[in-house]
Design brief:
The radius of gyration is 24 Å and the shape is elongated. It is an alpha/beta fold and about 525 residues long. The protein has 15 helices and 20 strands. It has helices at about 35-40, 45-50, 90-105, 120-135, 160-185, 195-205, 215-225, 225-230, 285-300, 345-355, 370-380, 390-405, 435-445, 480-495, 510-515, and strands at about 5, 20-25, 30, 60-65, 75-80, 110-115, 150-155, 210-215, 240-245, 255-265, 305-315, 325-330, 335, 365-370, 385, 405-410, 425-430, 455-460, 465, 475. Helix 3 (about 90-105) runs parallel beside helix 4 and helix 9 (about 285-300) runs parallel beside helix 14. The strands form four sheets. It has an eight-stranded mixed β-sheet, with helices on both faces.
């Protein structure tokens, strides 16, 4: 990972191969936002940028030779989007700009980031964007790839040095864990399967003082985890349930995070068609997010107790596979008629939700690439948040907003519950197709302990980027929901009651514009 530091050295004097500056999108052309650097070009920087085709739009990166008076050898101008008079760019804009710079300058030795970071929060945004933007999954490449930037330095004012250093430390922890989640999502299913995933979890938890318990298939059978076992019975690689826990002596509140960990989802007997199964290694993104979030929380030493539950299985068709029409007895005793074996994520989550609820946490959040219906509705940049408790749903949304992740509230319409009625069991795993993502949420609700605040995060769209990289988001696994879970834990660690009303989620101009690429 890129080595990241902060300095109070001026942009003109900093020693670096590249100096990165921001350029806003003005009414009459690009507007450089770093006045001292612009001054070194005389009066010609705006015209030079325009001649090179720059507009200041988000995602732009324009290379320039450094003028006399600038110690760095080269200048990279990155777009910040529309200029708001008298206002600094918001943190998401800074994250994306730093990510573009890091990705554009892959292979560079030293880079100085002279972006407008005048607060600790802004410094953290630049740091996190740079570290996430430098990510590249090269494990299976046999040809040489440009390495990430070797060293990046963020330029700050002298009075900001101490909070800037703290911001960089937090950003590094988040980036390392978020990139861990990305690595797991990108690893192919022939190498990442339930047992090997559990081994990765155990090793990582040991490194960071997090408790871990792995329930193998024999223990799952003995304890009656019918959902996880049912989904995994068609594979030669048996399922696992992994419990991880961060415990803090000063904590009085416990959160439970539950992650769907289908290491490959063929759909089972209800087989997915060609074109729908090529990225199904990513169906364990929820479990990867839970692992990364709990590790980050432990490394940040937050005074909150957190358990993570990773429900790991491989959904395959075979002579021993689960069949449509089969009935499973879930953990806790309820019966489920399986009408669609491709609605398997909710089965493994149901077992894990019941088990997590036995420990009486103060709130539960599950994370899953659960339904194509949610992806159809919200696209590839926004995840859904569903909850029975509006106050807790709003608290999760507020955490996502603060963390820079795009989330949207979705309802749990009671009239859709009837479509989950079964002729032979307590409930069916599949109901009305229209509103299928909401139906899935209603199914999960059935397995949450009464009175415990719960939120369901359906990350089916943003968990895996099938297109080219943009901002600080790579192609492939994105690490979606990690930052939201950590921010939620930070709120609780600071004394926020998960059961209390949440602050209103601000609606910004950037939100209305949507996910700019």
């Amino acid at each position: 990972m890129t080595a990241l530091t902060v300095t109070t050295t001026s942009a003109a004097s900093v020693a670096a191969d590249w100096l990165v500056i921001g350029v806003a999108q003005g009414d009459e052309g690009p507007v450089p936002v770093h006045v001292p650097v612009a001054g070194a070009f005389g009066d010609g920087l705006t015209g030079l940028l325009a001649d090179l085709g720059a507009t200041g739009a988000r995602g732009e990166a324009i290379r320039l030779p450094a003028p006399a008076g600038i110690r760095a050898g080269l200048v990279l101008a990155v777009g910040l989007g529309p200029a708001d008079a008298g206002m600094d760019p918001d943190t998401e804009t800074l994250r994306r700009a730093a990510g573009v710079a890091a990705r554009t300058l892959a292979g560079a030795g030293t880079v100085a980031l002279a972006l407008p970071a005048g607060t600790g929060e802004a410094v953290e945004a630049v740091a996190l964007g740079a570290l996430l933007g430098a990510y590249d999954f090269t494990t299976y490449r046999t040809t040489a790839q440009a390495p990430p930037v070797r060293e990046a330095t963020i330029l700050v004012d002298p009075g900001l040095l101490a909070p800037a250093r703290a911001a960089v430390r937090r950003a590094r922890t988040l980036a390392e864990e978020l990139n861990r989640a990305r690595d797991l999502v990108n690893t192919p299913a022939n190498d990442l399967y339930p047992d090997s995933f559990a081994g990765v979890v155990a090793a990582a938890c040991q490194d960071h003082g997090v408790d871990v318990q792995v329930l193998d298939d024999e223990r799952l059978a003995a304890d009656g985890y019918g959902g996880i076992l049912g989904v995994g019975q068609g594979s030669v690689r048996p399922p696992r349930l992994v419990r991880i826990a961060h415990t803090h002596a000063g904590a009085s509140t416990t959160l439970a995070f539950v992650g769907k960990g289908i290491t490959y989802d063929s759909g089972g007997i209800s087989l997915k068609p060609v074109g729908a199964n090529e990225i199904m290694k990513r169906d364990m993104s929820g479990a990867a997010a839970v692992l990364a979030a709990v590790l980050a929380i432990a490394r940040l030493d937050l005074p909150v107790n957190v358990t993570g539950w990773l429900a790991l299985a491989e959904n395959m068709p075979s002579g021993s596979a689960l069949r449509p029409g089969d009935v499973l007895r879930m953990y806790g005793g309820r019966t489920v008629e399986v009408l669609n074996t491709d609605a398997e994520g909710r089965l493994v989550l149901a077992d894990a939700l019941v088990r997590a609820g036995e420990e009486r946490p103060d709130a539960v959040v599950d994370v899953a690439t659960l339904t194509a219906a949610t992806r159809f509705g919200l696209g590839d940049h926004v995840f859904a948040v569903m909850a029975e408790d509006d106050a807790f749903r709003d608290r999760v949304l507020a955490a996502a907003h603060e963390a820079g992740e795009r989330a949207w509230p979705m309802p749990l319409p009671e009239e859709l519950r009837d479509s989950l009625r079964s002729r032979v069991a307590d409930i069916a795993n599949y109901g009305q197709r229209m509103g299928g993502g909401l139906v899935a949420g209603l199914f999960l609700r059935e397995f949450v302990p009464a009175g415990v605040p719960w939120a369901h995060l359906d990350i089916a769209g943003p968990a895996f980027n099938e297109g080219p990289a943009y901002g600080y988001t790579p192609s492939g696994g994105t690490g979606c929901a990690v930052r939201t879970l950590v921010r939620l834990a930070e709120h609780v660690a600071a004394g926020d009651d998960p059961r209390s009303p949440a602050p209103a989620v601000p609606t910004t101009t950037a939100d209305r514009r949507g996910a700019a690429r």
